[in-house]
Design goal:
Layout: H1 3-14, H2 16-27, H3 39-55, E1 60-64, E2 71-76, E3 85-91, E4 111-113, E5 116-118, H4 122-140, E6 148-154, H5 164-170, H6 172-175, E7 179-182, E8 194-199, E9 201-210, E10 216-217, H7 218-221, H8 228-237, H9 260-267, H10 273-280, H11 293-298, E11 302-310, E12 320-321, E13 324-333, H12 339-353, E14 359-368, E15 371-372, H13 378-391, E16 396-400, H14 406-414, E17 418-420, E18 436-438, H15 439-457
Helix pairs in contact: 1-4, 1-15, 2-4, 4-15, 5-14, 13-15
The structure holds ligand BES and manganese (II) ion (MN).
Manganese (II) ion binds at residues 91, 124-125, 157, 184.
Length: 458
């Protein structure tokens, strides 16, 4: 081990308390990207990052405004032209905190319980942003960077359809790099380092069914007016057949079949049915026949109803025949499905199945392609080695069901591949109440990053 690497690792270990304090500062800013009332907090988070990046030794730091939420860029290219350049990604936005009543502590007051820190954004992904900062800081405070580093941190990941794609297209030179480090995925367990080689794409819709011109008395009009809530539930229930397959015509046409070799490999991951039953707290699983749970969630496309609204939902009762019904519906996509084509298929489904007693409208809220990464790139090899050093184990290769839209944009626009990693573990409750991060795993992650950056130099 080089002396510099050794002292950088010691520095990182000695500064875990400072890392934790930084995390708490960033997490306390409620930067919820979908909420227009949080615009000031979004700005505050971007400025907080800018200051941190300057303090830790980035030589150029800039906030780029966009029509929506600002992008933070930073670089330190002192390693020189011979050394590789890594573009480190992050998103400083978070999901809304609801359902607020189910939180055991305030979502934006980071709270330590044993080895865990609870707060919205702790694992997705402010903790991981700080992990990358702490690794870079540890190296810079004890010597020179072995690689050139650029940071690209956006504020629109959690809402899809972000402006980042345009920004990447317009700033190809600024963002030029040898590879993309995306620390927005996770690990399968505290002692199971993991590398994500596939992320699903997403098509997200808002569907409205419009009936009478206003809410009606359900006794006076029930029986002659087709209730929009009933039409909505009929349409939604028709989207799956009794084998758990999506019924939209053509939905599976472009899905690449799973090779037996990959199926064998996926079956060896510690993600059996029990894992999903335990994590979700259900008694039985559901899904597409003919595929295992790990295949269904990572390698097969799915469709979910994310939210439903119609009529009266407050306490008590109200005899109303609602004027409209609304549903949020999303599909997760795998290669080679195209999110825009899925929108057309959904429209065809509605045109063929919606009755003429109502009108409907389908809005597209997000459309992002799935991505796959080369598992044999030199960058992946460098991370495997780093993870082996820290955890004493070869990382697992996983496909995850979630989406990180930027990965495919980077692949297509900059022509470089991604290393998708992360230090969150199952039980982190991302997007749900009581989100948390396992601190010892995050600290190990910082050490893995330090090893990784030094490994890249050779
Ligand atoms: N960090 C997640 C992706 C993820 C999910 C990683 C599960 C590891 C395990 C990411 O921030 C995310 O949630 N993305 C959204 C994107 C969407 C709104 C376009 C998602 O997947 O829902
Ligand atoms: Mn995330």
């Amino acid at each position: 081990m080089t002396d510099h690497k050794k002292v950088a690792l010691l520095y990182a270990q000695d500064h875990q308390k400072q890392t934790l304090d930084k995390m708490k500062e960033l997490i306390a800013i409620p930067s919820i990207s979908t909420d227009p009332e949080r615009k000031d907090d979004i700005q505050k988070a971007a400025e907080w990052l800018k200051k941190e990046l300057s303090d830790l030794g980035m030589t150029k730091v800039e906030i780029f405004p966009t029509p929506r939420h600002p992008i933070v860029y930073a670089e330190n290219l002192n390693a020189g032209k011979e050394a590789p350049t890594v573009l480190i990604y992050g998103h400083y936005d978070v999901q809304p905190e609801d359902p607020i009543d189910e939180w055991k502590s305030d979502p934006f007051t980071p709270t330590e319980v044993g080895e865990f820190l609870y707060a919205r954004g702790s694992t997705d992904m402010k903790g991981q942003i700080i992990a990358t900062f702490s690794a870079v800081e540890a190296i810079l405070q004890t010597g020179e960077l072995p690689v050139n580093i650029k940071f690209l941190i956006e504020g629109e990941e959690e809402i899809g359809g972000s402006y980042l794609e345009v920004f990447i297209k317009e700033n190809k030179d600024l963002l030029a790099c040898d590879f993309f480090l995306n620390p927005d995925t996770g690990m399968l367990g505290p002692d199971l380092p993991s590398i994500t080689y596939a992320l699903r794409g997403i098509s997200y819709f808002e569907l409205r069914i419009m009936g009478p011109k206003q809410d009606l008395h359900s006794g006076t009009y029930g029986g002659v007016i087709h209730n929009p809530a009933q039409v909505m539930t009929d349409l939604l229930s028709g989207l799956h057949d009794d084998q758990g397959r999506v019924t939209m015509k053509g939905f599976y046409d472009k899905v690449l079949p799973l090779e037996q070799e990959e199926r064998d490999e996926l079956s060896r991951l510690p993600l059996g049915d029990d894992h999903y039953i335990d994590q979700a707290g259900v008694s039985k699983l559901w899904g597409e026949e003919g595929y295992t749970s790990v295949e269904r969630t990572g390698a097969r496309p799915t469709l979910e109803i994310n939210g439903l609204y119609s009529g009266f939902i407050d306490e008590g009762q109200k005899t109303v025949l609602p004027a409209y019904a609304m549903a949020k519906v999303s599909t997760r996509l795998v290669p080679d499905q195209d999110p825009d084509e899925i929108y057309e298929l959904f429209k065809t489904y509605l045109a063929e199945n919606a009755p003429d007693t109502v009108t409907w409208q389908l809005d597209k809220l997000a459309a992002d392609h799935p991505s796959m990464s080369d598992r044999k790139s030199p960058w992946i090899t460098a991370y495997i080695k780093a993870a082996e050093t820290v955890w004493g184990k070869r990382p697992l290769f996983v496909r995850i069901g979630g989406s990180v839209p930027v990965v495919v944009h980077i692949q297509q626009i900059l022509g470089v591949d991604a290393v998708n990693i992360g230090f969150g573990i199952p039980g982190g409750n991302l997007h749900g109440p009581n989100e948390n991060v396992h601190l010892p795993t995050l600290y190990k992650g910082i050490e893995a990053l330090v090893h990784f950056f030094f490994n890249l130099k050779q």
